[in-house]
Amino acid sequence: MLSASSASVVTATLPLVRAHGEEVTGTFYRRMFAAHPDLLNLFNRGNQATGAQRQALAGSVVAYAEHLTGATDLPWNAILDRIAHKHASLGITPARYTVVGHHLLAAVAEVLGDAVTPQIAAAWEEVYWLMACELVAREARLYHGAGVGSDVDVWRAWRVTGRTDDTADVVSFTLVPADGGPAPDFTPGQYASVAVDLGPDDRQIRQYSLSGRPGLGGWRITVKRIRATADSPAGTVSTYLHDTVAVGDTLRLSPPFGEVSAVPGDGPLLLVSAGIGVTPAMSALAHLAATDPDRPVALVHADRSESTHALRAELGGLVNDLRDATVDLWYERVTSDHGLPGARVKAGLVDPDHIPLVPGVRVHLCGPLEFMAVVRRGLLARGVPGGDIAYEVFGPGMLRPDADRR
Ligand SMILES: Cc1cc2nc3c(=O)[nH]c(=O)nc-3n(C[C@H](O)[C@H](O)[C@H](O)COP(=O)(O)OP(=O)(O)OC[C@H]3O[C@@H](n4cnc5c(N)ncnc54)[C@H](O)[C@@H]3O)c2cc1C
Ligand code: HEM
């Protein structure tokens, strides 16, 4: 809890800090990367370039300050869990919090100048460390649960045992631990970080959902190639994986992390996905087909067309093994009538009013943020409680708190 004296200082200075948020963020990263260039390999360069992650770190400290002073009602437990799982998958150590805290507070002082009295600096330092302690504690528990030692080395070598080019832009890799040990178990919906060396001292890390069935000797990831457009370059890691990784190669992966289960509860389940967001749903279907084939499950999947729909070929077999499953495929372009047994194919964008619902259903969403916001609003309007709708974002950020109302 924030001390009473700091609470009043933070309340009074929140508008000022918020107003200079972007400048503070830019200054923070500039200072930190100048002092610790090795950290450039830890942070996602694409997100840095687009600004997607830049706001996330400093922005969440400001949001936490609002929470501590009673100015918001955000779901903090879920937010801290999400950040902690992401951090754990990157192997963030407690010592790094001292570095980040130092540069973040120095950035506030640099940007706000004389406005930052020692009392104001101390109050914001208290906010930072309250949040940092929450995260460090959660991350310590995650490391312990994953068997990560006190050196917080999360990386393990995995050998690529299979490569399947699934669509023109999607490839799947099957992997087993290179040391011959067992593959850690995971819950459908969880992901692993993959660290790739692009050159000397040039490393990048990305997260990929585990798209196969838990409990096997190995894992599978399914990666969509991000192609260059007129305004943006090709994706760094997805291009590397597509262009260079072959059977027999070694990749470095973290243990499985991720707080969002794609098989929540034990009653009826609705999986709604779009594009490459189908990966957690496929893991969930494979898991249920093997362990709970009578569980009622509906998959609603949106894609450009049949030919872009990743892992489509294995859907038929899974649906066959599930005794109470329905599949609705919404394709923007219905290009052929290569029917999938048991699946209904519809043309156009997913219409939330036509998503099959049964009482007590638990929902898992995965796809672009805008897609998930539309589906979530539609489901809420049809009476599904917000707490029964989980979602995964394939990038930094969460659904905006006002997403339900727009
Ligand atoms: C929990 C989680 C699970 C995920 N699961 C999957 C999965 O199962 N399958 C999957 O394919 N992906 C998944 N992702 C996404 C994945 O982690 C990567 O984000 C994705 O592969 C893109 O990485 P990249 O390195 O190829 O692209 P990046 O290089 O990170 O680029 C990302 C975007 O930023 C743009 N960009 C980069 N630099 C610039 C610049 N200088 N100017 C303008 N624009 C720029 C790129 O054009 C691109 O559009 C998941 C993400 C998360 C967080
Ligand atoms: C109180 C301190 C911190 C806060 C509030 C914080 C907050 C965040 C948030 C909100 C995200 C985005 C999560 C998501 O939605 O995916 C994130 C990701 C990340 N954080 Fe932190 N963080 C803190 C400390 C640290 C530290 C100490 C490091 C290590 C130097 C670090 C490195 C990262 C990295 C590398 C990512 C992923 C970035 C990306 O993929 O672009 N963070 N953090």
Automatic annotation (TrEMBL):
It catalyses: 2 nitric oxide + NADPH + 2 O2 = 2 nitrate + NADP(+) + H(+); 2 nitric oxide + NADH + 2 O2 = 2 nitrate + NAD(+) + H(+). SUPFAM superfamilies: Ferredoxin reductase-like, C-terminal NADP-linked domain, Globin-like, Riboflavin synthase domain-like. CDD domains: FHb-globin_2, flavohem_like_fad_nad_binding. Its EC number is 1.14.12.17. Keywords: Heme, Iron, Metal-binding, NAD, Oxygen transport, Transport. It is an enzyme of class 1 (oxidoreductase). The keyword Metal-binding applies. It holds the Pfam family NAD_binding_1. Residues 1-140 form the Globin domain. Residues 153-263 form the FAD-binding FR-type domain. In the C-terminal section; belongs to the flavoprotein pyridine nucleotide cytochrome reductase family. This is nitric oxide dioxygenase. It comes from Micromonospora zhanjiangensis.
